[in-house]
Amino acid sequence: MAPHDLRRPFKRRPISDQQKRRDLSLLRQSQHRSDAQQRARNLASSVISLQSSSSPDVDPETLSEPMPDVDTTGHESEASSFDIRQASSLRGPEARKWFASQLMLPEWMIDVPENLSRDWYVLARPAGKRCFVVSADGTTVSRLRNGSVLHHFPSALPGGARKKGVSGPAQSYSILDCIFHEADQTYYVIDMVCWRGYSLYECTAEFRFFWLQSKLDETGACGPPSFYHKFRFSVVPFYNCDQSGLHSAYTGSLPYVKDGLLFYNKHAHYHTGNTPLVLIWKDERCSQYVIDTDNNGQVPSQQHIVLELQDDGKIVTSDDPPVVVNCLNADFIKQSGLSPGSLVRFAIGDGGLNCVDGKFEKADLQYISVSNRARAFADSYSKIMFQYMARHSPLKAEDLASVISQENQQDKLPEVEMSD
Amino acid sequence: KLVAMEVTQLLLNAQSIDGTVRKHAEENLKLFQSQNLAGFLLSLAGELANDEKPVDSRKLAGLVLKNALDAKEQHRKYELVQRWLSLDMATKTQIRAFLLKTLSSPVPDVRSTASQVIAKVAGIELPQNQWPELVGSLLSNIHQLPAHVKQATLETLGYLCEEVSPDVVEQEHVNKILTAVVQGMNSAEGNNDVRLAATRALYMALGFAQANFNNDMERDYIMRVVCEATLSPEVKIRQAAFECLVSIASTYYEKLAHYMQDIFNITAKAVREDDESVALQAIEFWSSICDEEIDILEEYGGEFTGDSDVPCFYFTKQALPALVPLLLETLLKQEEDQDLDEGAWNIAMAGGTCLGLVARAVGDDIVPHVMPFIEEKISKPDWREREAATYAFGSILEGPSPDKLMTIVNAALTFMLNALTKDPSNHVKDTTAWTLGRMFEFLHGSTIETPIITQANCQQIITVLIQTMKDAPNVAEKACGALYFLAQGYEDIGPNSPLTPFFQEIIQSLLAVAHREDATESRLRTAAYEALNEVVRCSTDETSTMVLQLVPVIMLELHNTLEGEKLSSDEREKQNELQGLLCGCLQVIIQKLGSEPTKYVFMQHADQMMGLFLRVFGCRSATAHEEAMLAIGALAYAAGPDFAKYMPEFYKYLEMGLQNFEEYQVCAVTVGVIGDICRALEDKILPYCDGIMTQLLKDLSSNQLHRSVKPPIFSCFGDIALAIGENFEKYINYSMPMLQSAAELSAHASGADDEMTEYTNSLRNGILEAYSGIFQGFKNSPKTQLLIPYAPHILQFLDSIYMEKDMDEVVMKTAIGVLGDLADTLGSHVGGLIQQSVSSKEFLNECLSSDDHTIKEAAEWAKHAITRAISV
Asked: What are phi and psi of A190, to 5 degrees?
């Protein structure tokens, strides 16, 4: 029976900061719980009071909502959710618009972004058709940018074939951003948008690529074709955009035909529509299609561009907000049978283009025709400029390499820290 | 079958220095136990009782026997108790006889071991009404001649009182035990060993003496004997007697008035003259009296209303003129390096601590008793006098009113700042910095009318503190502590903080301190991060960009701790501690920046931060896990539905957390974080719910998990149900029966102590929150009918906790809310049932007239829902 320890805290606060953090967390949790319950109670009450009014119509705005709800059987979400599988039943221009708006579209690289080597990945884009591949409910569908179905097939993707014991929960589906490469009949995956029902829209490219690499292989989708797996899938190799990464992507030998280089900002989320955080760059060495061809596959002598006509006669690019290139007068519009929303094809005359701060100061445009119907969108500002530069003073591979080597010089300087 | 000789050898071998021999013996002992438990225990008892066996084998036999009866872990203990009870009576009788026989052994160690084993057996058997003759046979031992038998028997009685609850021993036996013990303490007892054993036994038996302390004559007798024992020539007896006084101070405070004068004299003499071990106990007596009075005064707001259970007798206040000088004298007896030794405890420290408690107990009255001492000594050449004066000053800052202290503190502030930069003594600077911290803690902040920190002196104070943070680690640590309270005082300052101009410098200085080579000494690094956290917590929008700049810095530091090099176990421990601190710091930052307008910019770090937290889970440290988990909870709240992207990776750590029974704090924190995630993800959490619910149900049925985690698990059911709505359907069949049986258990907590009542209420609250969440989740679903069968039980539960009359306000609010939710969700299906319930009448009315507006609000909602349900 030893005497009892008498020590009391000496020159100490009665509670530690850790305990304080714990207590504050508990307090926050219980406040939020009671807030959530309070909301639920208010909601319940308002539902009762609104019982007589009719259920809300489907809001057309929700068509462009980027992330469909995981749970389509959910109570509240039933009325407003509109997921990608329902969208599959859309036809014609609606479908085209919807699908086109779901893809992340690169801008063309017209100047070199900062911190290329630190913040960007580079990968060699396979030549082929860009498409969304959706696997769900025992089948896989690939859709082109214009919404039309490319293939309808069984695959080893989650839920991608009617086969027992492979897929996850019944409701889950996956969406991959791919390029279909005709020569070896392979879907080259360039991005992962949804995986087993989990949205990756709000994840950084760094995370999505990591996830893509680790998850795709697990499913067996990268294996050779079989009865339940009609096309092979393959992950496009990506590199940190340093000297050696750029070199590998640019000159390295790959199983597919290259069509330019894609640059992904590591921190960027999957942003639907045009984004400056993914860039495409091409030159003759890594692409057969540096300069746009016309409908017959010929490079026209003059650069052709497609612009959209607005209500007020302005002709604009597809950017958001649109960039005004020029203005058509009302008589001309009438004569040519154009209407607001028309996509119009022009050639660039000898007067050329002149831009200051992303605005056209001068554009020598020659009207050709109304564009063909397969198109959903006008050209973007960056595409017009890249094409123009490609014809006059292209951004060369050496320029990229020299920017990276300059950045490396700077990186060697000591970093400033906040501490002494 | 083993023979007795072999048991002896095995027990000796089990203590061999030769590892192989030892291991072999241990294995054989285990084998023996598993093959024949009764035989095993019997041969251990026989070994213990046999005076011809070696002492070492006998002692180990007793120890193994004791461990076969009791364990620390609750579930293991329960198993052992059941195992013993199921042994055959013949074996148990034989073992008991061996144990009692051992008390007569001439070998002291063996007797002492037997005492403890007997108490363990008693702890199991007395509540079952088994071994009724035990107390009788022990008492008959008391009258035996050999002193050593008497000593062993008293020791056994002491342990027995420690082991069993007073209500399983009849009052007649209690009286006899106390009589025997107190007689053994009496100065008439010539044998010091007997007297010491009796004194220590009384210490443990005091809890049994309720009735005797109510009887004036018996109490007088006990007190007289205890006080006499404090004067024994034997130091150990004096020390044990003071321990009894300390325990009496807290157990029988209200019975002491009559004895206080004598006790003061005894304690004063001990403090001034006796051995330190005795003096410390004497000071502790006064500290305990102060603890009691502080509690009483806090509970009754200082007003003696007549209906309080225990009145305050103001013993401290009455003793003040003599007690304060006594304590001040002790302050001068510092040890040279007590500030450098974490485990130090000496008379100066005890005296100063007691002085602080006295100040809290008496308030303003202490000031005039202490000021002359401070004024006289604060500038003396001897560091002991300066330190003692400073310590006295720091000690009395909590208790007296700000009005009483303000003038003195304002005058002292400049002096203290000066001492902090100029005093040559480390000791003085340590105490000075601590005292400044106390000034800021108690006399700076929005509630103080005339602040001690003004525009005029703010810069100087901060400059001195930052300078002091470069001093020796123990002094720097106190400076960080002072900064902590300096920041805390500006918690509710509004949009403009006086700290803003210094913010950057403060942050940089704290980071610099955290990076000092010697930062792991004297808790310095911890203190630096704690101060950093408080500075961030109390910062305003003006400085949010600077806090934002801190994010990558702290993340980088956390990243560095994760770069695994080969570390020694000591280095690893420090590394883990640092990880915990950094995760804690990030948690504070997340909470600061995770809402508008900084949220958007801040959340750009979220992916990377989450990646780091996930890596922390890869390291083995409960504290770091807990901190990372807390930080993730805060991040989930800030991220909202976007948090879904982390779930695939995070999920396994969530599961691991829920399985961590041993470090139950981690489990508890994880349960809380699931609530955060439910609210962030809402129905996107659905894919994970099977796993989470399975684990939560396992946790609830486990008897290994600390009970404090169970109420939050029930609340978590509610969070999940609210998030996933009618999808909760598939868990109904599992969760409802669990809730129902827990509800039955928690409905009646009658006769229990405060701690039990508190636990019961937290359990009730959890259960009720679960019901609320489930009802709300099913609201407006065609599946509500699934819940109708549970309505009668839930209403009954509400009725019974109402009748029990021991629920606290929190439970009251949740309970009335459940009544409303039930009515709202089930509507006319349960209209009749609701009308029959007591809750819908008396309880509802009571809540409607509550002073607490949150209860009133919930009650109004319930009333509304009930009206609707019964009107259809």
From this structure: -105, -15
Residue B345 DSSP symbol? -
Name residue B346's amino acid: N
A419: helix, coil or strand?
Answer: coil
N- to C-terminal Cα separation, chain B: 78
Q: How many CB pairs under 8 A join A and B?
A: 161
Q: Test B644 with A199 for CB contact under 8 angstroms.
A: yes
Rounded to a whole number, what is the distance in Å from the CA of B665 to chain A's nearest CA? 10
CB-CB under 8 Å, B669 with A419: no
pLDDT given for residue B282 in this prediction: 97
Question: CB neighbours of B196 closer than 8 A, spacing ≥ 6?
Answer: B234, B236, B237, B240
Per-residue pLDDT tens digits for A294-334: 767 778 888 889 999 988 888 998 887 888 888 888 888 88
Tens digit of each residue's pLDDT (9 = 90 or more) over B791-815: 999 999 999 999 888 889 999 999 9
- The pTM score is 0.68
User: Peptide bond preceding A106: is omega within 30 degrees of 0, i.e. cis?
Assistant: no
Nearest Cα residue in chain B from A70: B684
A77 and B683 within 8 Å at the Cβ level: the answer is yes
Q: Are the CB atoms for B159 and B115 separated by under 8 Å?
A: yes
DSSP string, B286-344: HHHHHHHHHHHHHHTTT---S-SSS----HHHHHHHHHHHHHHHHHT---TTTTT-TT-
Which member of A22, A36, A47 has the closest CB to residue B630? A22
Could you read off the pLDDT of B218-249 as tens digits, one per residue?
999 999 999 999 999 999 999 999 999 999 99
Please give the structure tokens belonging to residue A191: 């991005």
Backbone angles phi, psi at A114, to 5 degrees: -70, 155
Nearest alpha-carbon partner for B777 in B826, B727, B736, B811: B727
| A260 φψ region: left (φ > 0), alpha (ψ -120 to 50), beta (else) | left
Nearest CA among B39, B51, B19 for reference residue B95: B39
Collect contacts of A379-382 with beta carbons under 8 A, ≥24 apart: A379/A305, A379/A306, A379/A307, A379/A317, A379/A318, A380/A105, A380/A107, A380/A108, A380/A274, A380/A317, A380/A318, A380/A319, A381/A317, A381/A319, A381/A323, A382/A107, A382/A108, A382/A109, A382/A110, A382/A274, A382/A276
Structure tokens belonging to residue B867: 């009206």
CB contact under 8 A, A41 and B824: yes
Distance from CA of B426 to the nearest CA of A (A): 15
Q: Report, in this order, helix, strand and coil percent for chain B, each rounded to 5.
A: 80, 0, 20
Q: Which of B431, B504, B645, B819 to mutate to test the interface with A (most CBs of A within 10 A)?
A: B645
Q: Could you tell me how many helices (H) and strands (E) chain B has, helices first?
A: 42, 0
Using the CB atoms, write b or e for B784-802: b if 16+ within 10 Å.
Answer: bebbeebbeebbbbbbbbb
Phi, psi angle pair for A234, to nearest 5°? -150, 140
- Cα–Cα dist A124/A287, whole Å: 10
Residue A190 has which token pair?
């360039």
From A6, A11, A18, residue closest to B284, measured CB to CB: A6
With beta carbons less than 8 A apart as the criterion, state whether B531 and B481 touch: yes
Residues 6+ apart with CB under 8 A from B600: none
User: Which domains are seen in chain A, by residue range?
Assistant: 17-281 (3.30.470.30), 304-397 (2.40.50)
Q: Are B820 and B862 in contact (CB under 8 A)?
A: yes
Q: How far is CA B78 from the centre of its chain?
A: 23
Q: What is the ipTM of this complex?
A: 0.75
Between CA B134 and CA B131 the distance in angstroms is 6
Q: Does A200 touch chain B (CB under 8 A)?
A: yes
Which two tokens mark B553? Answer: 């810095």
3-state class of B597 per DSSP? coil
Per-residue model confidence (pLDDT) at position A167: 41
